[in-house]
Amino acid sequence: MKAILYVGHGTRSKKGAAEAKQFLQSVIEQTHGSIQEISFLELTHPFIEEGFELCIKKGATEITVVPLFLLAAGHIKNDIPEALTPLIEKYPNVQVKVADPFGVQHQILDAIAELVKEKAGELNGQEAILIVGRGSSDPVIHEAFAMIGKGLEQRLGIKHSRLCYLAATTPTFQEGIESITQETKDRVIVIPYLLFGGLLLNEINAEVKSRQKNGYQILHTDCLSRHQVIRNIVIARATGKEDEYATTRY
């Protein structure tokens, strides 16, 4: 019997965890499968082992693991495989397939452009965008964000963009937002490249509000899971229709 195990990152924020679970529940309701379980890599229960064991108890002989991660950083390359290895060894007769992370997809960039236009209204091309990533020391992530920045510039007709990160690498979020607000005479649009709300999005929101009070023309878009395309991509991963959402296209 086939099963689907969704794996989110996890968060210390109760609101963020509830948001992620609510999102996944909506995916489950739209995905035909008798065994579907939710799990998280860290910080939020149930963890991967708990979700995997629930799939087994319900009779799973094939498990498709669907990571809810935007890019292939250390969690995808190391942490999730490390969590799954003892489970695969424990249940050698169970086939386990791990779906790819989302990657840089033109559908996601189109969705972000829509979120920007919904928030900012009509653009004049003089605005600047600040793309904020979670952060990773992996150079592949930096290459991906360069593609994301270029793709959004093209879609929005904006010439000035910057990238920054909330942890693990530079430029930091504080460095990025300070630089772009000083350089830009028009509006600054901050784009959190995050799937769900939580402490990281709260940090961005607090900084943006602080600068708004100081007279800066600055705003930020919401987390990416607010757009239907993200839900569609997760469903495609879960049902084995990944080819409908090809990566590295922007």
Automatic annotation (TrEMBL):
Gene3D superfamilies: 3.40.50.1400
GO terms of molecular function: lyase activity; metal ion binding
InterPro entries tied to this protein: CbiX-like, Sirohydro_Cobaltochel/CbiX
Signal peptide limits: none
Keywords, alphabetical: Lyase, Metal-binding
The protein, known as: Sirohydrochlorin ferrochelatase
Species lineage: Bacteria, Bacillati, Bacillota, Bacilli, Bacillales
